[in-house]
Amino acid sequence: MAPSDPWLARQNVALKLKGHGVTLDVAGGRVRLRATMPPKPEDPPGCEPKQQRISTGFVYPAQASESLQLAEQLGNALERHRLGLETFNWEPWLPKSKQKTPKKANENVEALTGQQAVRLTRQWWGKQRTRGPSEEDSWKVDYQDPLAPLLNIDSLMPEHLVALVETTKSGSRSRRRASQAAATLARALGWTDELIAQLRELGKGYSSANSQVARDLPSKEMIEEFIDRLSSAWQWPVAITAAYGCRPHEALLFAQIMPTGLLRISDGKTGARESLALPNEWVKRWSLGTKRLPAFNNQRSHRDVGALMGQAFRRHNAGFKPYDLRHAWAVRAIHNPQISPSLAAKSMGHSLAVHSSVYQRWFDSHQMVLVQNQLSLSA
Question: What backbone torsions phi and psi does residue 53 show, to the nearest 5 degrees?
Fold first, then answer.
């Protein structure tokens, strides 16, 4: 690779500005790191630091970004060594043939039962970051339930985690959850990076877009007919869910119509936000400015409270689920030119990335209709 390669030149300047004494070059199609480094472990005592070239094994340009990350890691390690903060560890930078064989995940480690492993994972998971009021629900759905088959194992081994994931259907949501839960348990126990990578790889193939948009959503007329026949107490939270696209537990616990007509969600899965009414006529149709709720225990978890609406739907033979009202709101927003995808995402309380992923098929379908109409007009 010629030294004038623009990408390499820019990155080497950036590394220098950051204070990293590392540069990148390419030989044989692979990226190398070049830096003045401390003596190697096998060098005789008294040797001075000298310039070394470290092969990353990364292909250029396909893995250029990975190489840059490695260069920054090496630069940080050299700087900490220079400042006397730590001894430079040559192990990660030696050729694979000269690296020490890592211990197996369970070598010299006291055997754990499945119950102990899940309990330690819960403690580790809870300490990783500050979580919201839905912490227990998230733990139960995403980790506790998928890990439940491990609880009766007397001596947990890495192969048990692999089997846990492989017993679920490939490409399914349950496999993705099992993969995520198993990889998290392996991280919590300090098992190998290779095992964690294997578990994550097994979980690939699931798409929220494929699962969410496959459902048949109720029409505007179906929604109105159903809400019209509800009791006054249930009519309000169900109509709030339909008109504003909020989550069922948010409608029951944290919703309040503001004088502007916007819905104020004070808390919930993704925190506080404001939401738009779509269509706005539903606010007047069901007098949503006057809050009415059924009697229920508001000290229960968000998941349990949200499930109460599902029970009401089944009692009244709705023919669809509460979350279908939320998805139907999103689809109406897609067909409304005044509501951008980012505004719809904010109104629903999730990121634009999640919004686009879940509703991509409807976005594509709407765009095709618009193009087809334009083509028909120009024909």
Answer: -115, 125
- Residues 238, 337 within the same domain: yes
Task: Based on the fold, state whether residues 89 and 145 are members of the same structural domain.
Answer: no
Q: What number of CA atoms fall less than 13 Å from residue 176's CA on the CB side?
A: 9
- State residue 208's pLDDT score: 53
Task: Give the model confidence (pLDDT) of 330-361 as tens digits.
Answer: 989 988 889 988 899 999 998 887 777 777 76
111: left (phi over 0), alpha (psi -120 to 50) or beta: beta
Residues paired with 54 in a beta bridge: 33
pTM, whole model, 2 decimals? 0.53
| Residue spans of the chain under pLDDT 50 | 1-3, 99, 101-109, 209, 211-214
Please state the domain count of the chain.
3
Indicate if 251 and 168 belong to the same structural domain: no
What are the residue ranges of helices labelled H in the chain?
6-17, 64-82, 114-127, 135-139, 145-147, 158-166, 173-188, 193-202, 208-212, 220-228, 232-244, 248-253, 281-285, 302-315, 322-334, 341-348, 352-358, 360-378
SS in 3 state form for 141-169?
HHHHHHHHHHCCCCCCCHHHHHHHHHCCC
Q: Are 202 and 245 in contact (CB under 8 A)?
A: no
| pLDDT at res. 5 | 80
* Judgement on whether residues 236 and 184 belong to the same structural domain of the protein: no
Residue 109 lies in a domain: no
Residue 152 shares a structural domain with residue 191: yes
Token pair listed for 253: 């616990």
Q: Which domain holds residue 265?
A: 220-371
Q: Which of 177, 206, 235 is the last residue of a domain?
A: 206
Two structure tokens written together for 48: 């001075």
Same-domain pairing of 299 and 274: yes
Structure confidence at residue 59 (pLDDT): 83
